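B., you asked whether I could sanity-check this one before it goes into the benchmark set. Here's the sequence:
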Amino acid sequence: MLNFAIIGFGGLGKVHFRNLKEVMKVEKDINLVAICDVEESAFTSQVQMNISTENAHLDVSKYKFYKDAEEMFDKEQLDFVITALPTYLHAPIAIMAMERGIHVFSEKPMAVNEEQAQAMLDASKKNNVKLLIGQCIRYFPSYNAVKKLVETEEYGKVRFANFVRWSMLPRWSWQNWFVDEKKSGGVVLDLHVHDLDYISHVFGKPKSVYTKSSRNSVDHDTIATLFNYDGMVVTASSTWGMQLKYPFTAEFTVAFERATVELKRDKLMIYTETEARELEAPHEEFGLPSDDGYVNEMIDFIECIKNDTVSKINPPEASKLTVDIAYAEKQSAVEGREVEIL
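And here's what the prediction gave me:
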């Protein structure tokens, strides 16, 4: 039996808690023993997020509660932790756990800067423990359907790809940490990081990036990036500049030589010269998991612990590369020039 705890019981902490029932259909030998959050109200309150979540009452009465992670590590025998903390706390808490021989699933982004991301990698290797970052897009069926088409070249090579991720400014965070770029990394590391990670996952490391950004409410609250790949054009834009009533939007268009695939309003469509059809169940047509990405990533992490393997889908080095590219984008936006990815 693998004993674990959830650290950080805000929006994503509650998402992972709700998903345990689905995870345990596959991973039956895991046992949640404790939940940790600095505010007692987190155990009973609901949290607004830009993704839809159930607002049903959560029964957490049978779990131990802690307000301090170090105290919990001292008192509990834990095999792994799920951390869903503010970005600036990702590295300190993950490293504290790994130094005690505890495996860590840490929410995205990996860390608030490149140095902290590298320190997390080093701690994982030094203590021989697993580290997986919650870059959940790598596990969603619609995105993986496109990845498979890129790899098989069923419709030829990619000519053009564009990704968008738009949201209102997140003002629901604890002590409003989202809008402090030193704590969250801004829209680049919090929102855009999903598409950035997926782009490198599918197309590999870009040669360089050229980014433009604007500052309306916080630094870099809107960005647009051109990724340099030979033979195709890849772009991505993200913003926290939408109005309160504008729905959270995450969409993409990928144009192949003989077809265009588009995710729009949660519908995955394929357009060819002769037809336009919706992939209602891409997991079936492409042999992909039917569960959502949050469930799939957790199963992958637990399997890595059990089998003493590194994730083939989402190795921690890939998450470090994502942080590196994000900072190259910031540099490009500030300096107004193309920045090479070393």
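One thing to flag: The domain at 138-290+322-340 is CATH 3.30.360.10 (Dihydrodipicolinate Reductase; domain 2). Otherwise nothing jumped out at me.
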